Amino acid sequence: MENIQLQVSGLIKRFGTETVLNGIDLSVRKGEVVVVLGPSGCGKSTLLRCMNGLEPKSAGTILLDGEEVTSDSKKIAQLRQKIGMVFQSYDLFPHKNIMDNITLAPVKVQKRSKKEVEQDAERLLKRVGLWEKRKAYPRELSGGQKQRVAIIRALCMNPEVMLFDEVTAALDPEMVREVLDVILELAESGMTMVIVTHEMQFARAIADRIIFLDNGKIVENSPPELFFTNPQTQRAKDFLQTFAYEKRRTAIN
Amino acid sequence: MFNDLFSKETLSEAWRIIEAEFPTAIWETVYVTVLATAFSILIGLPLGVLLVVGEKNGILPLPSWLLHTLNVVINLLRSVPFLILMILVFPLTRLIVGTVVGTTASIVPLVIAAFPFVARLTESSLREVSPNTVEMAQSMGASPIQIIVKVMIPESVPSLISNATIAITTILGYSAMSGIIGGGGLGKIAINYGYYRYKYLIMIAAVILLIILVQIFQSVGTRLAAKADKRIKKKSI
Questions:
Q1: A200 to each of A18, A38, A139, A197, how far by Cα in Å?
Q2: pLDDT tens digit string along B192-230?
Q3: Is the residue at B34 inside a domain?
Q4: Is residue B53 situated within a structural domain?
Q5: Do A77 and B139 touch (CB under 8 A)?
Q6: What is the CATH number of the domain that holds B22?
Q7: Which ipTM score applies to this complex?
Q8: What is the rounded CA–CA span in Å between residue A100 and residue A189?
Q9: Which of B132, B142, B155 sits opposite A95 (nearest CB)?
């Protein structure tokens, strides 16, 4: 395959005696959107965390643009700048205002000029409608707004790959939309992304490919339409079934 | 006794002493307290940072023997009563200041007593920073030093300020105790006049002034800490 940006091969991750990831092989092409699904505890988040070296892996290789992601070398700091990550808990810096939250890493870590970064931030904040909030502190923002800022903060590092770890899991339903719209727009602009989510509709809409993980293994790796309409394994069928509700009661007439 | 205490002669004598001695004594107390606090923070703050980042799962793990030694030394110094510590560090005081009596000399034992305390306070402040926030900074490629200087310390400023206030009021209390070994300030006045010469009025006046100083330090500290805290809602700014 051409243009492979992220290559995971034989990835194994153990916590003590428990094997969380058991031989993951996955390649993500440039501009591709891969959505990782699976029951909780199947290793989805761990997979993402291994991809940017937050979790040291037990075995296997992860290559970003042909460079190995290791957790111990000094090169990891360089590599991490190419991988933007957004977490479920936003993790904005509570004592910095929105603008400072966004500019901190590009200015201090990447040593870019503050002016240039602020221009990027302005453009992005305006696009998601949060420019008026640039002087506000995180506590003054709603969850959805915080998460959009967190996405912009990651984007201002000019990453090549974005990793989203259940970014809407802590949000009220009406705020989920505003965050997912930002991610959808990002996908249209050609960003390479790996997304862990529980929003099935969203997964179906955004994914180029669905990865279904169970017990630390990739059980299915298929296009979204195939996965959602005709899953190949019983395990995936059962999983999808948990999202469907049947009418149990007959109406009282 | 109370008749004597408030008789015209004692009152006017007390006032004479207060006028003559107190301005210098207040100055000495403030001077000793501020300097001792500054040095304690200078030594204690980096040690407190090391206690947090140097852990096995910290962002800059230290060899475990080093961290262990650091912990033992801090606990050891914190468990020696201040009165004993003052005498124990005489050789060090002589080495640094050249004498063991006097106002400046009392700074040395104060720093030795207070920096382990400051280290522990710093440790607890930094532990309040959410591990997720630190991980976020790591995921953006920040180096351990950048995380300490740009994330951990700025994010714990309100807590650091309130802990610095605790430190300065504690050191103020210790500085009064150093009056016993010849340190200057309000403590010396209270002991020399009040305890040794039974001039209770002077002692009471000195204690009231110490209370006022603590109040001032505490309210300034509380206000600064609240101002630095961006997580809480402010009624008016």
A1: 28, 11, 30, 8
A2: 888 888 888 889 999 999 999 999 999 999 999 999 998
A3: yes
A4: yes
A5: no
A6: 1.10.3720.10
A7: 0.83
A8: 25
A9: B155
